[in-house]
Amino acid sequence: MQTYSCVLMRMDGDYAVLCRADNGDEITVARALLPPQAEEGSRLLCEGLAFVMEE
């Protein structure tokens, strides 16, 4: 599975809009898939549909 870095751009109800760091694509995902401490501006690592905070 591909691993990539992204930034949480905004929360939109039950969804979050992420921006991939490698190509700038916007991705909409369910907020339930994100770590509870994620907030706008957070950097996340994604592998498949597993998101973790980037250190």
Labels describing this entry:
5 strands, mainly beta, 0% helix, 5-stranded antiparallel β-sheet, 55 residues, OB fold (Dihydrolipoamide Acetyltransferase, E2P), single chain
Describe the structure.
The chain has 55 residues and is an all-beta fold. It has no helices and five strands. Strand 4 (43-47) and strand 5 form a beta hairpin. The chain starts with a strand and ends with a strand. The mean pLDDT is 94. It has a single domain (3-53), classed as Beta Barrel (OB fold (Dihydrolipoamide Acetyltransferase, E2P)), CATH 2.40.50.140. It is 0% helix and 55% strand. The protein has a five-stranded antiparallel beta sheet, with no helix packed on it. The chain has strands at residues 3-12, 15-20, 26-30, 43-47, 50-53.
Q: What percentage of amino acids are in beta strands?
A: over 45%
The secondary-structure element order is EEEEE
Class by helix and strand content? mainly beta
Q: What's the helical proportion of residues? A: under 10%
| Rg (CA only) | 10 Å
Number of strands: 5
Low-pLDDT stretches? none
Query: CATH superfamily, please?
Result: Nucleic acid-binding proteins
Could you name the CATH class? Mainly Beta
Could you report the average pLDDT, rounded to the nearest whole number? 94
Fold-level CATH name: OB fold (Dihydrolipoamide Acetyltransferase, E2P)
Number of helices: 0
What does the largest sheet look like? 5 strands, antiparallel
Strand order of the largest sheet: 3-2-1-4-5
Known CATH architecture? Beta Barrel
Using the alpha-carbon principal axes, give the shape.
globular
Q: What is the count of distinct domains? A: 1
End-to-end span in angstroms?
Answer: 20 Å
